[in-house]
Specification:
Length: 182
């Protein structure tokens, strides 16, 4: 449970930083369920702009459709900048009630161990996103997520070390194998 809570904290940090640095009106993260082939809203961060007040706060789950722009995004493993009507309609088709007055999007997949872990989506109205916005978002996400993975590896290493030490300390037979003449 701790790991899950820590990851959500890092996801919220990513959303806050990208919101600030890309001047987005809204940022959100969807987790991916490979078995069900759906994404579920995990977290939303909003700017103080008036045009983001009509977001549903309830749990949102959306089915991934084969041959959709999301499947293309996952296949290419790259960010997708959407500043056109066709692309916007594709985003809106995922969760029609989530974004009502947004015109421009960046969609970024997050992979872990070669599998899709989740999708970041950044939205704003009126002004377009550009490649620099997408690069800023990618650098922030990748940097913070590497820190998450490193922290989790260190925690696991510490846990295994403690278990091994406890095993050795509690069992005399193992101590005799390690130090037979003491």
């Amino acid at each position: 449970m701790k790991e899950h809570a820590d990851r959500n904290e890092y996801i919220n940090l990513i959303l806050s930083k990208v919101l600030k640095f890309t001047n987005s009106n809204l940022t959100c993260f969807f987790s991916h369920d490979e078995v069900r082939q759906e994404i579920s809203l995990v977290s939303i961060k909003r700017s103080q702009a008036k045009n983001v007040n009509c977001i549903k706060e309830e749990q949102i789950t959306c089915k991934l459709v084969q041959n959709s722009f999301l499947s293309e995004l996952i296949e290419k493993r790259k960010s997708l900048i959407i500043n056109d009507l066709v692309g916007v309609n594709n985003v809106l088709s995922i969760c029609p009630d989530l974004f009502t007055e947004m015109d421009n999007f960046i969609v970024l997949p997050l992979f872990e161990k070669g599998k899709l872990y989740g999708i970041f989506l950044f939205a704003k109205s009126k002004t377009n996103f550009d490649k620099i916005d997408a690069q800023i978002a990618e650098v922030l996400i990748n940097g913070i997520w590497r820190a998450v993975e490193k922290s989790e590896r260190e925690d696991e290493k510490e846990r295994l070390l403690e278990q091994t030490k406890a095993l050795i300390d509690k069992h005399e037979a193992i101590m005799l194998l390690i130090e037979p003449y003491s």
